[in-house]
Amino acid sequence: MSELKVRGCFTTTQKEKIRAMVADGYTRQSIANKFGVHVSTIYRVVKA
């Protein structure tokens, strides 16, 4: 599966992956860097 650089839009799998990473204790900044997105995008995904 190719990583698509779509601004502010994640697949369900990516959202689950991000939530799992937050649960594992990753900082939102490090997750944002990993996915190449803005930190606020991560906050929005986690909150949703």
TrEMBL record:
Residues 16-46 form the Resolvase HTH domain. Pfam families: HTH_7. It comes from the Bacteria. InterPro entries: Homeodomain-like_sf, Resolvase_HTH_dom. This is Helix-turn-helix domain-containing protein. It comes from Shewanella eurypsychrophilus.
